[in-house]
Every structure is written in structure tokens, then in C-alpha cells.
Design a protein that fits this description.
The structure is a single chain. A 4-stranded mixed sheet has the order 1-2-4-3. It is globular. It is α+β, with helices and mostly antiparallel strands. 17% of the residues are buried. It contains 2 helices and 4 strands. The longest helix is centred in the last third of the chain and has 6 residues, at 64-69. The chain has one domain (21-77).
Length: 78
Amino acid sequence: MTRVQWTGGTEHWTHKGDIRLFLWNKPAHAQVPKAGTILFVHGSSMASQPTFDLSVPGRPHSSVMDWFAERGFDTWCM
């Protein structure tokens, strides 16, 4: 069985009044020149983190956030 490896990421929360908003960040890899920032936004019926940061053992680059972070992008999803 292949083990799932933690690839990092940071949970953030912001709020306005009673509304709370979840944000997930995967920073650009330090060894790569900075290429910009990407914000991934999900639709109303799916959560952002499993949609954009799903890691599947044996399937490299199944996480689109990892793929862009490896290329110098600071990635966020909400």
C-alpha cells in the first residue's frame, strides 16, 4: 500500500460579521523563482481543498495546487 505524504499547506480563516470564510494556502517552493499568485475558487456544491489539493498515491500532480507551487506560484483556494 502506498502511503499518503503530507505536502504542506496552511489553513486560514477570515470573517465579516457572522460569515466565516475558509482559505487554504500552499506557498511557492523556495527553490523556484516566484511566478505570481493563483486563487482557486470552487462552485457552490464542492469544497475547495479536496477539489484543488487532492493527493492521490501513485498519481503525481493530482494536486493542482502542488503542481503550480512547484513552478513558483503562491496558491490559495477558498
